[in-house]
Amino acid sequence: RPGAIYKAAVLGNGIVSCLSYLLLLYIASRLFPRKDRRLLSGLCAGIFFLPGVAAVKYAAVPDMIIMLLICGAVACMVSMEEEAKTWKAVLFVVMAAIGTWFHAGMICVTIASFLVLYHWYKTRKLKENTILCMGILGVSVVGGGFLIEKIWLYQISSNTLLGLKGSMEVFVTTVLEAWNSQGLLEGIEAILVKGFVLGLATILLIYP
Predict the structure, then answer these.
(1) How far apart are CA 74 and CA 206, in angstroms?
(2) How far, in Å, CA of 149 to CA of 171, rounded?
(3) CB 56 within 8 A of CB 64
């Protein structure tokens, strides 16, 4: 029943919002230990009243799950600065990479996670072999999600006339289509726009 599925999605968004709030509060308390905890709690709660966040809370879309994954990844980063543990790095990489299962744009977070791994290697928080395994894990999670999506979409398309494409495939083909159909300048523009968005998102995750 569509109504039941929608209600379950909204309920799930509510649970995910609560978990995201706890993670945000953890991050804020670690980054600003001298600030009043009530102030930090209010600011973290206020995020969920922002128009963009408030709108998707009542929609059957994966945006809240993506928010939870980003909050979890940042929480792992903060915790690693306090005490480096391999399991934290594993959790960080999985959360950063699994976001691509829900939105192709999350590839920027995966790219950022590799840069963070390199930083942990340079600061000797993790050994070289561990960093290599973490990189392979991240690529495997992204590749596994892409493969599962392709198989799932193929099964749907085989029973219908719809030519469904995977999110990563759409992400890339939009650039190629702009290049082929609208000329060189439009193709370069599409590449620059997507590159700017991905680059900005990557920098904003790791810069703080």
Answers:
(1) 9
(2) 14
(3) yes
| Residue pointed to by tokens 């726009």 | 193
- Decide: helix, strand or coil at residue 61: coil
The residue type found at 20 is: S
Which pLDDT tens digit goes with each residue over 57-107?
777 677 888 888 988 988 998 898 888 888 999 999 999 888 888 877 777
Residue 77: enclosing H or E segment and its boundaries?
helix 63-82
Q: Where are the beta strands (DSSP E) in 10-158?
A: none
Q: Write out pLDDT tens, residues 154-189.
A: 666 665 545 555 566 666 666 566 555 655 666 566
Number of C-alpha atoms within 13 angstroms, CB side, residue 141? 23
Count CB atoms within 10 A of the CB of residue 117.
22
0.90 surpassed by pTM = no
| CB under 8 A, 24+ apart: contacts of 141-145 | 141/93, 141/94, 141/97, 141/98, 141/100, 142/97, 142/100, 142/107, 142/110, 145/97, 145/98, 145/100, 145/101
